[in-house]
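Q: What would this chain look like folded?
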Amino acid sequence: MQRRGQGAIRKWSLGASLCLVTALSGCGDNALFAEGGFFAGRSAPVPLEQLDAATIFQRGEAALAANDPEEAAALFVEVERLHPYSEWASRGLIMAAFSYHAATDYENARIAAQRFLDFYPGEEDAAYAQFLLALSYYDQIDQVGRDQGITFQALQALREVIERYPDSEYAQDAILRFDLAFDHLAGKEMEIGRYYLRQQHYAAAINRFRVVVEQFQTTSHTPEALMRLVEAYLALGLTEEAQTAGAILGYNYQSSPFYDDAFRQLTGQDLAPDAAGEGWLRDIWRQTVRGDWL
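A: My prediction, written as structure tokens:
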């Protein structure tokens, strides 16, 4: 259960506890069941339409406590639907988003979170709603070998948290997840590039590794991408490009085992890491020396 969800439950659970105690004592106006009190086993439940917002909300909390997030979500949605102008409406909506996410119903979690942002953009829980929306994408990111369209959506939603709510308690978590999602995209390019390299489709492999070096240079995959460029360019006989890739790798990641591998490949052909020739890698080298992209 996410940190904010727990806080929300704690924040609004006192009323539920009081209602339960009152119901057990047989004195409450908001009894959880129909006439006859808590122990009236044959009484029909009161229709939700006849209950006030607080009571429906409390039932949602009880469903969460019973580890039934699907039922909880349905109840929290009813709070907002049946009592749209009450003080409980926004609470029900944010808790519906939380409950849907807990039930791994990511599509409905997004819908509820976005609805909250549309109708209650100025409320305190807006940052959490945006974070939940981002999580609904992020938690669907699978292994890097699959389509990563969902990763782009996660990145966009996480960026919204970071930029719109920089002082919120979710900003740092969003930054961390953003970096991990970004790393996933680079990993996708690397996996495809390695496949092409194994198939000896060197030009196609180089294009994938180039994407990592140019667009994902801050990720953990950049040292390997540069080493693979050395390998691919040497296979094509393009020694100047291979030397330049090795020079960039040595300048930035000399302690990396990927540099050791690239250095062995180059010296095995009587070459050394060196910024030679012109082309896109030479531009990267100039940027590296100036520190523009580090």
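The radius of gyration is 28 Å.
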